[in-house]
């Protein structure tokens, strides 16, 4: 199946992924996702503004992006982070950021790999990302999408179609026969993950 040649629309660098969150029941704040970070970080100014309690001493030492090291003020554990209706318990190191009081860095938290792992977060960009976003906080989705609105189901169909068209287009460019590739993959999966035999019932 061939498609007419078309240029992909250019997209500017998003620079960072920011999501709206609520910390400990606060108003909506900005949470910046960072796959490079092995910790979650909250500025001291924001900690004080939110009126949180429970700081604990820490021996952690942070290596910043500019290759300088900083000792965190302290750390705080099990802070409830609300994301799209889902509560995620999160530990933070609290860092004193010496910037101007109106600097955006003082009023947003950094969410690293620990948060993403706890939230079972998937980050994708492009067609697959748009499809994954629909199911990001849905958990296990039952067959037939009961309880979903008709327009929501239609939206799922549209995003699935976009992904399918992209795959067909990509397979054509790469010279991959999708029918044969799928059958071979099914055979490989059957060998690698054999289905358990159904126990025979006594006659």
Q: How would you sum up this structure, described in words?
A:
The longest helix is centred in the last third of the chain and has 25 residues, at 150-174. Helix 3 runs antiparallel to helix 4. Among the domains are: 17-118, Acid Proteases (Cathepsin D, subunit A, domain 1, Beta Barrel), CATH 2.40.70.10; 153-192, no CATH class. It is 30% helix and 22% strand. A hairpin with a 5-residue loop joins strand 4 and strand 5. It is of the alpha/beta class. Strands 3-7-6-1-2-8 form a six-stranded mixed sheet.
Instruction: Encode the helix/strand succession as letters.
Output: EEEHEEEEEHHHH
Q: Give the N-to-C terminal Cα separation.
A: 53 Å
State the strand order across the main sheet: 3-7-6-1-2-8
Structural class: alpha/beta
Q: Low-confidence stretches at least 5 residues in length (pLDDT < 50)?
A: 1-6
- The fraction of residues assigned to DSSP E strands is 15-25%
Helix percentage: 25-40%
The shape is elongated
Mean pLDDT: 77
Labels describing this entry:
alpha/beta; 203 residues; disordered N terminus; six-stranded mixed beta sheet; elongated; two-stranded antiparallel ribbon; 5 helices; Cathepsin D, subunit A, domain 1; 30% helix; single chain
């Amino acid at each position: 199946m061939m498609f007419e040649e078309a240029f992909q629309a250019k997209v500017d660098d998003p620079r960072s992924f920011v999501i709206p969150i609520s910390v400990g029941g606060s108003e909506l704040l900005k949470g910046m996702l960072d796959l490079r970070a092995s910790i979650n970080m909250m500025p001291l100014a924001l900690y004080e503004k939110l009126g949180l309690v429970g700081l604990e001493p820490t021996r952690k030492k942070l290596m910043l992006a500019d290759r300088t090291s900083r000792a965190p003020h302290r750390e705080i554990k099990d802070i409830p982070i609300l994301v799209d209706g889902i509560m995620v318990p999160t530990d933070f190191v609290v860092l004193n950021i010496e910037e101007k009081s109106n600097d955006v860095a003082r009023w947003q938290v950094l969410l690293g790999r620990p948060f993403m792992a706890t939230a079972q977060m998937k980050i994708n960009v492009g067609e697959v990302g748009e499809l994954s976003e629909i199911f990001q906080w849905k958990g296990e989705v039952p067959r037939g999408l009961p309880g979903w609105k008709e327009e929501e189901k239609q939206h799922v169909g549209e995003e699935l179609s976009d992904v399918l068209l992209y795959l067909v287009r990509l397979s054509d460019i790469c010279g991959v026969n999708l029918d044969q590739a799928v059958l071979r993959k099914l055979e490989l999966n059957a060998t690698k993950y054999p289905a358990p035999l159904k126990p025979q019932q006594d006659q």
